[in-house]
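Today's session is about reading a structure prediction critically. Students often jump straight to the picture, but the first step is always the sequence itself: look for stretches that repeat, for charged clusters, for runs of hydrophobic residues. Only then move on to the predicted structure, which in these notes is written as discrete structure tokens rather than atom positions. Here is the chain we will use throughout the hour.
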Amino acid sequence: MTGIPGGYDYSTPPPASAKRLEAGWGERIGWTVPVWGSLGLFALVPFLYVALRRGLPSDWTACISFFVYEAAVWTWLIVLEDGAGDGVFGLTLIFAMVMGTALTLFALFDPKPNRPPLPYGAGPRPNPYQQNYPYGR
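Below is the predicted structure for this chain, in token form.
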């Protein structure tokens, strides 16, 4: 906040959030199961989980946008007459599945930090949980 009276100095990046929700590729793929398993009708589930855990405004915005989508789709599904607009409804579901999957895989979770490799010849990393000899020696 220095340099600009009463404003934010945009030359410095904004402070990082203290709440990180890291996930590897296995977890990310696992969170796409509700999206594909429900044919896009429950695409809200991963975004609600992240919004509740991390609580950032961007997470709540994504969650609310998918909630609005869910309300529109379920209303459309209930009101829709047989045959009228089935193609558009199908394209909407496919678009939601692809969008929910892409956001879950690439944008929703924070990446795990890369640990630098050990130099050649160095011993293994110490185990932070084992403090003394095992079995009471």
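Discussion point for the tutorial: The longest helix spans residues 57-79.
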